[in-house]
Specification:
Blueprint lengths: L2 H11 L3 H4 L2 H7 L3 H12 L7 H14 L2 H16 L4 E2 L2 E2 L3 H12 L3 H14 L7 H18 L2 H12 L11 H14 L3 H25 L10 H17 L3 H12 L2 H4 L2 H17 L3 H19 L5 H10 L1 H14 L2 H12 L1 H14 L3 H17 L10 H17 L1 H7 L6 H7 L4 E8 L4 E6 L4 E6 L4 H13 L7 H11 L11 E5 L19 H4 L1 E4 L19 E7 L9 H13 L3 E6 L4 H8 L4 E5 L2 E2 L9 E3 L9 E3 H5 L7 E4 L7 E4 L2 E5 H8 L3 E5 L5 H15 L4 H15 L9 E5 L3
Parallel strand pairs: 3-6, 6-7, 8-9, 8-10, 10-14, 14-17
Antiparallel strand pairs: 1-2, 3-4, 4-5, 11-12, 12-13, 15-16, 17-18
Helix pairs in contact: 1-12, 3-4, 4-5, 5-6, 5-7, 6-7, 7-8, 7-9, 8-9, 9-10, 9-11, 10-11, 11-12, 11-13, 12-13, 13-14, 13-16, 14-16, 16-17, 17-19, 18-21, 19-20, 21-24, 21-32, 22-23, 23-24, 29-33, 33-34
Length: 756
């Protein structure tokens, strides 16, 4: 990173600067990050002992083009070299580079707490005297930004103040650009858009003269492009601030100029944002068709980047951070009257992570796995190489290559092609998957924008709903549902019905309804809503889907042998954890079901359960469930310790199971809950079992009462012999309700997945 010093030398030496810059520095300074990646991969790939100096450039290029699947292994290699004592790029100490890259990536993936954690490491590493000043500026910039995004304003202001105090006087004048860009980003995150403009203007005053003199003094050997590393993010922040300040014409001019820059397309972190901003300006100025076009391009960019994230949690965070983009596009399409396309983009936004995982699992189990996996790898490699490029501007041969690969994959495994190529599920495909006589109600959005798509075999209708204060209403009704002694939930149940279902009454035909919630609606028991005369459960047969996109993975598998594995009251080693009614429940169902295996107390060890689960196509867990909102993948079912190991069957472990389960019943506390991730389905046990191979899950939304649960479950299994699963659960709930009317006793359980 010699750009500051080289620029100063240029002023003094009056020439020779172009020759002094290595190719990687030229590409870095000119924001040519796709080219930089190609250059450094060719240098680093054949060298297992690549030096820190080369790895920094390679990792930084991956970060800028959002090639996450390559970025994190690159950071690990860089960290290993630094830990081995190779800390220098040129003569500067870059020990903080791995934590800085991890912190920035965490910000992009929406994990602001992790960004704070990694920025703390970088901050500590850049405190000693003699550390490269620019690394200290970067550490303070990302730290203040992470706190701002996390909502910790006081901490953000503290580190922004420390950043502003960094001395960037001569000979470090050019580093002021990094400082003021960092300050501007934090001001934007804090909603102070004028403050962001002020920071950029200070940079112009302090560094503009030196930059101009450098260009003049070298008689053109150094051009303005030497400084484009700073200018591109500065111009973006300025255009965004103008937009937020509603200076629409100025914002449009600034954005259009940036979109015409070739370097912009190689900065994936900025490109989709500029497209999103240009769409917002177009819509504001009355050109909705143009706005929709820009938003489509922005979504394509986001999903091309998203294909490079391997971990589900990362995928969720990535989309969640960009959910506003999808909401704006969906809202524009609804207003434009294109309900079917709006529905496709809503599905594309809210459940890609689960559909991705289901598709990849089906892929691994397929006899066609080898050729399909090879095609997937080729498609993803092509996507990554083009991730920062506008498809409309691609040379024909490169775009055609990607199209050919996607076509081959579609012919070989169409159920996988839609996943890895980020193609939205077509409304018609979803319609064809719906059983006759069933209506899908698919919610999308939140407080500011809430829409319900009502989908039948014949039509797709979009209805705008009032989402204002919805989270508060759901929190309030859940409090009343879980504590029968604290008040009557009926008024709220009727209010929520009027908000969420009454506007759809004319569109929902028949009594069979499937609901795909979004966000906080995952916590709402739709069966307990009330139309003023009766509860929904009394009028409609319900099932829940995490998203409509999972339908292809639920409806076409053959049923197994009806062998039932019953797990009841595992011995957890603590008397206060005993569930005697759960054991009675499991034993009662065992008597009803001839082909059943019963595991109780110490028999219900985790390893035993995992081994036997694969040989049964119905699983019943009458045990404690633990929900951890802070770490949803660590949530799970509490089974008996076995083999010297704890008995917690976590969501993460469930993902690794291979089931052929027609039904999984989770008769335990809060088993249907998960941590809501903006933009995606909840992460919880339901998702884990769906991915593991279950077609249907029955689970609970709150801690349930033992005796009522035993009665409901026995009735449910008795009904399975003569009714579809959804109807068996409904009739069991109605029967319990006749004896115990309060919804606490019967409304917690809901059926997710296939209801037949």
């Amino acid at each position: 990173m010699l750009r500051q010093w080289i620029a100063l030398v240029c002023v003094l030496a009056l020439g020779g600067c172009a020759a002094m810059l290595p190719p990687q520095d030229q590409m870095f300074q000119q924001n040519r990050f796709a080219e930089l990646r190609t250059l450094m991969e060719a240098k680093v790939a054949p060298d297992p002992a690549a030096k820190t100096g080369d790895l920094v450039y390679l990792c930084f290029s991956y970060a800028k083009i959002r090639a996450y699947d390559r970025l994190f292994p690159c950071i690990d290699r860089l960290q290993a070299r630094i830990d081995a004592g190779d800390t220098k790029l040129y003569w500067f100490d870059f020990s903080a580079a791995p934590s800085l890259l991890r912190a920035q990536a965490a910000i992009e993936l929406g994990d602001y707490a992790k960004a704070v954690e990694q920025s703390e490491i970088a901050y500590r590493l850049t405190q000693p005297k003699g550390v490269y000043l620019q690394m200290k500026i970067y550490a303070l910039s990302v730290r203040s930004l992470a706190f701002a995004l996390l909502g910790r304003r006081a901490d953000a202001e503290h580190f922004a103040t420390e950043l502003a105090a960094v001395d960037t006087s001569y000979p470090d004048t050019l580093m002021a650009s990094d400082k003021y860009i960092g300050l501007a980003r934090t001001r934007m995150a804090l909603g102070d858009h004028q403050g962001a403009l002020d920071a950029l203007e200070r940079d112009d005053r302090e560094t503009g003269f030196l930059k101009a003199m450098t260009v003049v003094a070298t008689a053109g050997l150094v051009s303005d492009s030497v400084f484009s590393y700073w200018e591109l993010p500065k111009r973006f922040i300025r255009s965004r601030a103008l937009l937020e300040l509603e200076r629409w014409d100025e914002a449009r001019t600034a954005i259009d100029a940036l979109l015409q820059e070739s370097a912009t397309e190689q900065n994936s972190d900025l490109y989709w944002l500029l497209l999103d901003d240009r769409a917002r300006v177009a819509e504001r100025q009355g050109d909705r068709v143009a706005a929709i076009g820009y938003w489509r391009r922005a979504v394509d960019q986001v999903e091309a980047q998203r294909a490079t994230i391997s971990a589900e949690a990362g995928r969720i965070g990535f989309v969640g951070d960009k959910e506003g983009l999808y909401r704006r596009l969906v809202a524009a399409l609804v207003t434009h009257g294109d309900a079917a396309e709006a529905f496709s983009y809503a599905e594309r936004a809210k459940a890609r992570a689960l559909v991705d995982m289901l598709g990849s699992k089906d892929l691994r189990q397929s006899p066609r796995a080898a050729p399909v996996i090879d095609l997937v790898a080729q498609v993803r490699q092509a996507q990554q190489s083009l991730a920062a490029i506008d498809p409309a501007a691609l040379p024909g041969t490169r775009q055609a290559r990607l199209g050919d690969l996607a076509g081959q994959l579609h012919r070989t495994a169409p159920e996988v092609a839609a996943l890895v190529t980020a193609t939205a599920p077509a409304a018609r495909d979803i319609q064809d998957r719906l059983p006759a006589g069933e209506t899908l109600v698919d919610y999308f959005g939140g407080d500011e924008f809430l829409v319900a798509f009502v989908v039948s075999r014949d039509s797709v209708v979009a209805r705008r709903l009032d989402g204002t204060g919805l989270a508060g209403d759901i929190e309030a009704i859940r409090a009343l549902l879980q504590r029968p002694d604290k008040g009557d939930p009926l008024p709220l149940a009727q209010r929520l019905y009027r908000r969420l279902l009454a506007p759809l009454d004319g569109d929902v035909k028949g009594e069979r309804m499937v609901v795909a919630p979004h966000g906080v609606l995952h916590y709402l028991p739709f069966a307990a809503l009330h139309d003023g005369k009766s509860f929904v459960v009394e009028r409609r047969s319900l099932r829940i889907l995490p998203s409509a996109g999972v339908l292809p993975y639920l409806d076409d598998r053959p049923r197994g042998s009806d062998r039932l594995l019953l797990v009841g009251n595992p011995d957890l080693g603590r008397a206060d954890y005993d569930l005697p009614q759960a054991q009675i429940e499991a034993e009662a169902i065992h008597k009803l079901w001839p082909k059943s295996t019963l595991l109780v107390r110490g028999q219900a060890g985790k390893d035993t359960v995992k081994r036997l689960a694969a040989a049964h196509n119905r699983l019943h867990f009458a045990s404690h469930g633990l929900f951890r909102p802070d770490a949803p993948l660590a949530s799970g079912l509490m089974l008996a310790p076995e083999g010297g190991r704890d008995g917690m069957l976590t969501v993460s472990e469930i993902y690794d199971m291979a089931l052929d389960a027609d039904l999984v019943t989770l008769s335990a506390c809060e088993t249907g809950l998960g941590a809501i991730r903006s933009g995606d389905d909840v992460v919880g046990l339901n998702r884990g079992f769906l991915f593991a191979g279950a077609r249907t899950i029955v689970s609970s939304l709150w801690s349930v009462e033992d005796e009522a649960t035993k009665e409901l479950m026995v009735r449910f299994y008795a009904g399975l012999a003569k009714q579809p699963k959804r109807e068996a659960l409904r009739q069991a709930q109605i029967a319990v309700k006749s004896r115990l009317p309060h919804p606490f006793f019967w409304a917690a359980f809901q059926l997710s997945g296939n209801g037949e």
